[in-house]
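pinging the channel bc i need a second pair of eyes. not urgent but kinda urgent?? the chain im working w is below, pasted from the shared doc
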Amino acid sequence: MSLANQLDQIFVFLQHWIEGFFPQWLQPGVGALIAVIGIVATFPAIFAVTTVLERKGLGRIQNRLGPNRVGPLGILQPVADGIKSLTKEDIVPRSADGVVHFLAPVVLVVAIFLGYAVLPVGRNMVLMNMDAGLLFFFAIGASTELSIFMAGWSSRNKYSLLGALRAVAQMISYEVPLLLSSVVAVMMTGSLSTVKIVEAQGGFTGIFPHWYVFTPWGFAGFILFVIAALAETNRSPFDLPEGESELVAGYFTEYSGFKFALFFLGEYLGMLSIAGFAITLFLGGWGAPFSFLGFMPSWAWFFLKLFAAIFFFIWLRGTLPRLRQDQLMNFAWKFMLPMTLLNLLVAGAWRFLGDGWSRWVICSLVLLFAYVLLGRVLMRHQHLGPRSYRYAE
């Protein structure tokens, strides 16, 4: 076996080597346990790195330093934050429902971790290669809405309840286009398996890959998926459930200490999970971007793409202002939903129009026309102009 293949499968070989120390009847369970430990160790570690990168990146965008006190260049700030969260007093409101208040962050983190089970991070590196992996991912992801409502309702706080209702309304609204935008990848692959979706994008034409994002329907589906993913994970400019200016901190206003840290962890793990899913559906998963770079391990390409997505999310947070609630809902139902439904029709037309440039031109023009038309309809009653400021005399 070549050195490149050995590096590509090094974690698979390590798992099999550890399994060899156990009886044969125990090996499947031990292998699953090792994979779970790998997921639970890797992605929270990326979360810790992401918090530093985000605070440093936002500081750079806003012309300030960011974390710079704990460790060299502030890189040990996540350690300090973790210690503070573990030692900070856990305050529960007297009128709160104690059991539900405690279970809400636990349910959120557990549900998000379950979504990683069907996420292929490399060749032969997926915990559960399910035939219906895509349905499992979205079914598990839907349970996060329950945990957020549990947090807001159990706190017995009007700000928390209002933040939870806003969060649930937002997540349900954007979950529809999120799911529909991913269906185009299923239509082209003919399978709901995340592994088969990645493998279907594994070919090359010359040096260029057959990623779905390089087609009109794939590019539109990818953009729609990313926008819906930002709303699903409460990232800017869709971070209305945590609107500090009007809701203090949203559904986790009454949380402190380690339980607040679990919500913080769950939000970032959800962002990493859905970014990894976008990579799987539209960016070739673990595949290399050029044929001559295939010597690099598949898992390395997946994590490089994941960090690129993280930097994109950080850039958006430091650039775009927060939307209003009415703008958020109008955008979901009047623009995102019609575009995703139309993209399904375009993907079907792409499949039956045959090879050649005609399908590129037809599909691109249909999507571009719909984009312009829906944009004009949405902006028809928006009177945009220079903002005037008035001050008290």
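so Residues 171 and 232 are 5 Å apart (CA to CA). and Residues 92-378 form one domain. — does that match what u expected or am i reading it wrong
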